[in-house]
C-alpha cells in the first residue's frame, strides 16, 4: 500500500523546519509499504491538487497530523480526501485532546476515518496493517498500565531515521536559483536544512497553559547518548557531502530538564566530534549553571528558546510557572551572550495581571538585556489544559472552540484587566518595536565585539523572525525589508568582505582594515 503523510500549512509563515512525526512514522512503517511525505508549508498544494495526487499515486491511506492551531485546515483537507473515497487517519496533540470532534461524534461533521491517540510509535504499524486489510478501526490508542495510564514508548531503542538518504529537497531553505553559487561559499551553503531531533520526551513542570505534561506525561524518557550521536554524525556527513549546511533543532520541551544527563550527552557529542549548529528549548532556571552553558557553546549550541512568558511574577504564579524567575532573565541572557549564544525569548500577553502598556514595559526591559529574538503571543486556552478548564469553569471562554474559527492574535477568552482588542494592539506594538529597522541596528551594535559570522547570523535571524508576525512571503515584502534595514546590511557586508579579503591576503602579509558595526 502507498501511504501519504501530510502536514497542513500553518497559514502564516512557511515553517523553517519539517515536522518530526512524519519522519518518525515513515521509519516505523512496515517495509512492504511505501511512504510519501508532503509538508504543506514547504510544498503548497490546493485541496484539489492533493486529491488528484493521491488518486494518481493510488494512495491507500493518508495520515494527517496537526496542532490545534492548524486543525481547521487539516479538517478541510481530510474532508476533501474522504469525499474522494480516500481513507484518512489523523493524529497529534489536537485529535488526542478532541477525538470526538475529528470522528464527528460531537454532533459536527466527521473528518477522519480513524484517530491515533497519544504517542503513536507503537500503534502506527497496527493502523497501517488494518488499513491495508480494509479493517481500519476508529480509535487507536497505546496500551494502558494497571492504573489506566498510557504505556509510553521508552525511546530505547530509537527508530533509525535514514537522514543520509531521505529526499529533503522540499525542506531546503536556500532558494533553487541560489543553490549553485551558495555551495561555493565557505564550507558550502548550497542547501540549508533545519532538522528536528528529539533526545527525550516529557516534562514534569505542568505549566497551566501547556499540553505537554498531559500529552507526554510527567515522567521523562531519554534516548541513549550513542543513539543521538549516531544520528548527528550521519547528518554531519550528509551536510559535507551535499556542500550544504545542516542545523539541528533539539525539539525536547526542556533539553536541560535533567542537567546531569544533558552534560553527559554534550560531553559525548564533543568527544565524538559530532557538533552541528543547534537550537533547543531550555527554561531560564536551568541556564544559570556555568558549566552547562560552556558545554552548550562547545557542542555547537547557537540559539536557546526560552519560554519567559512575562516579566511580572504575579502572572508567572497565575500560570504555575514560578520556577522561572523574571528577575534572573538578564543574567541568563548575558551569560549566554558571553559565549556568543543568543536567545529566542517567548512572551505571552493577555495574562490575568496584564494591563494596557504591557508591551512597552516588556520590550523596555528586553532592550536592557543582551539582544535576542523576542517573540510575542497571547494566552491561548488549548483543549485539555488546566488553563482551558479554569477559564471554562469561570465562564470566561469567549470562543470555546477557537480553533474552528481561527483568528491570528485574537484571544479566545477575556483577559481580566484589558480587552481582547487591547491585547491585540499590545502584541502588534511589541512586534513592531522589537523588529523595527532602528532596533535591528541597535541590536547588532550591541554585539559589536562578537565575531562577524555571529553578527551576520543574528541579523539574518532578526529579518526572518519578523516574519512570524508580519507577512513577508512575497518578493516585494523582502525587497522593502532589505531596503529598510540597509544600514546594518551594508555595514556587515563591508566588514565581511574585508575579513574575507584579509584571510586571503594573510599569507602575503597585507591586511586591510574596516570599521566594525
Ligand atoms: C517543534 C515544535 C514546534 C516548531 C514547529 C513544528 C515543527 N516544525 O516541528 C515551532 C517552534 C515552529 C512550533 C511552533 C508552534 N507551536 Co509547537 N511544538 C513543537 C514541539 C516542541 C515538538 C514537536 C515534536 O516534533 N514533537 C515530537 C513528536 C514525536 O511528537 P508529536 O508531534 O506529538 O508526534 C507524535 C504523536 O502526536 C503522533 N502523531 C503526530 N502526528 C500524527 C499524525 C498521524 C497520522 C498519526 C497516526 C500520529 C501522529 O505520533 C507521533 C509519535 O508518537 C511540541 C511539543 C512536543 N514535545 O511535542 C510543541 C507543540 C506541538 N507546539 C505547540 C504550539 C501551541 C505551538 C504554537 C501555536 C505556539 C505559538 N503560540 O505560536 C506555534 C505554532 C506553529 C506554527 N505557526 O506553525 C503545542 C501544541 C498544542 C496543541 N494542542 O496544538 C505543543 C504541543 C507544545 C505545547 N506547549 O503545548 N512548535
Ligand atoms: S516547562 Fe515548557 S514544556 Fe514543560 S510544562 Fe512548562 S511550558 Fe510545557
Report on this model:
The protein is 39% helix and 14% strand. The strands form three sheets. A six-stranded parallel sheet has the order 2-1-3-4-5-6, sandwiched between helices. Strands 7-10-11-12-13-14 form a six-stranded parallel sheet. Helix 1 links the parallel strand 1 and strand 2. It starts with a strand and ends in a 12-residue tail after the last helix. Bound molecules: cobalamin and iron/sulfur cluster.
Largest sheet: 6 strands, parallel
- Dominant shape: globular
**Structural class by SSE content:** alpha/beta
- Note the beta-strand portion: 5-15%
Mean pLDDT: 91
Helix content: 25-40%
Could you tell me the number of beta strands?
14
Record the strand order, biggest sheet.
2-1-3-4-5-6
N- to C-terminal distance: 57 Å
Oligomer: single chain
DSSP summary: helix tally: 20
Ligand kinds: cobalamin, iron/sulfur cluster
Enumerate the spans where pLDDT stays under 50 for 5 or more consecutive residues: none
Structural Rg: 24 Å
